[in-house]
Amino acid sequence: MTFTTIGLPKLKQAEKEFPTILSLNETVDLLIGGASICRFGDGEFNCLHWQHSTDAQARAFAQRLEEVLATPTSEQIIIAALPFNCPYNTSKRKYGWLNFWEDYWSRHWDFLRGKLTNRTFGNANVSRNSVFHEVDVEKIRSIWTDKNVVFVTGKDSRFFDDPRLFGNMKSVEYLFVEPVDAWRHYEVALEKALTFDKNKLFIICAGFMATVLAFDLHHHGYQALDMGHLPNCYAQYLKEAPTPEWLPRTVVRKQSS
Q1: Helix H or strand E segment including 5
Q2: How far apart, in whole angstroms, are the C-alpha atoms of residue 144 and residue 230?
Q3: How many angstroms separate the CA atoms of 244 and 26, rounded?
Q4: Other CB atoms within 10 A of residue 127 CB
Q5: Distance between CA atoms of 150 and 169, rounded to whole angstroms?
Q6: Domain ranges of the chain
Q7: pTM confidence score
Q8: Is 151 helix (H, G, I), strand (E, B) or coil?
Q9: For each successive 10 residues of the chain (257 residues), what is the average pLDDT?
Q10: β-strands 148-154, 171-177: how paired?
């Protein structure tokens, strides 16, 4: 049997039942207003399956992700998901006549429909190249203008503090975590983060861990942004680099002082 006879009804069902996703401008407006953000992409959604893992640490982390996902989006905290289709950030016809996300929703909707219990989510593309197509870069930069910022990222990871995006910050500090599977060292990262003053803005680029860390830091009184591949996606938007997932996970690169 073909996808047309099996997968198309599921795809149509997913599109009909899909929650409302805020626009990128609406999501950025909330961040400018002081909201924290926790993002869910295919990687975080896939981690929800870890609840059935034989690895106790993986099960516990999946439960934390589900806790975050069940939290309603508000003016204080944004729980963000990907739109049903991503016009700027989707591999078109990646799977025959389907793009990446159409294929993903059609295969995973039976599982995810029970997880996306809230009806409104922020737009997780706020950290992808899509945002630069729809939101002026100066508006994005205004999120951290004159802020004291802590970057949480993997040591020698592909993250870099591009001054074209981040050159307007008042001060910059780093909290380095493991560049791969940082979630396995989550408690250590959270303990170190909580030593920073509450006036610090956290920008977290640390894989799956970022979703939970931003959530917990928000509840400890910080503004915390799970921003994934943002600088790499800006380079992608400018056609200076490929999609971030094509880059090596670790890169020897001098960090700005």
Answers
A1: helix 3-17
A2: 14
A3: 25
A4: 26
A5: 10
A6: 3-246
A7: 0.91
A8: strand
A9: 58 93 98 98 95 95 97 98 84 71 91 94 96 98 98 87 96 93 95 98 95 98 95 93 67 44
A10: parallel
